Amino acid sequence: MRRLLLLPLLALLLPGCPRRLDFGTYGRLDDPFYVLQVIQNRYQQVGGLVGEGKLAVDSKEVSGTLRMAVEVNEPAFIYLETVDVLGTPRGTFATAGERFAFYQPGENVFYTGPATAEQLGRFLPVSLPPEDLAAAMLGELPLLFDAEEARMEVDETAGTYVILLRRGVVRQRLEVATRDLRLIAVETRGMQAIDGSFDDFEELLPGLIFPTTVVLETPRAEVRLRYTDIRLNPEVVPANFELQPPPGARVEAL
Fold it and tell me: Cα-flanking dihedrals φ and ψ of residue 87, to 5°?
């Protein structure tokens, strides 16, 4: 009798049993452009964030994790202050779009110059102009919303839609959760771009889920931003993104 009772349980544990997909309130979709529109609408609801978290970098030059205080506002306002696990300041970066400043306390040097992708790449692990960097830090990587070709499949194992987009020679692969259409991953080929993945979603605004973990991948480095205690859409105060050299610091104009 005991063996007979175990048979139904064993059947449930056997590999290969189909898992029922959760399509949430949207139902099963077959139009990739509808999904893209939902993602674009969510992009438009988030203009910035302020809070704390951790910044992890893995590259050939450096690897490690720092604690951070961060404020980002579109189109190109970024403030990033980092300390190590012992609380020792490691660097402060700020830009309002046209120029940037970076203070390196270990050497007591204050760098300033035009906020180009090349210049920012000297101090940050991702070489992007400020407007693209701000969007990436908000989890808003550029997508082919105006794709010439779009195809959508269901990955039943992962519980995601896989959306394949093409515009000219540029191709993108998106992974989107079937249940709530959250953007999980982006891969771009055919042009210089950043790949990304997103996790640890929280409802920080009514009806809006936001990824509190953002992973950016480039040939140079993998950068992981883990946000904690953040607030979305803070008021933009331009003075918050202007750094002044501390007394006694050596100023390097680039």
Answer: 90, 10
| 43 sits in which H/E element | helix 32-45
- Are 108 and 91 in contact by the 8 Å Cβ rule? The answer is no
Q: What angle do CA 35, 40, 41 make, to 5 degrees?
A: 100
Q: pLDDT tens-digit profile of 16-44?
A: 555 678 898 899 999 999 999 999 999 99
The string of DSSP codes covering 150-218 is EEEEEETTTTEEEEEEEETTEEEEEEEETTT--EEEEEEESSS--EEEEEEEEEEETTEEEEEEEEEE-
Three-state secondary structure along 97-139?
Answer: CCEEEEEECCCCEEEEEECCHHHHCCCCCCCCCHHHHHHHHCC
Per-residue model confidence as pLDDT tens digits over 51-82: 999 999 998 888 899 999 999 999 999 999 99
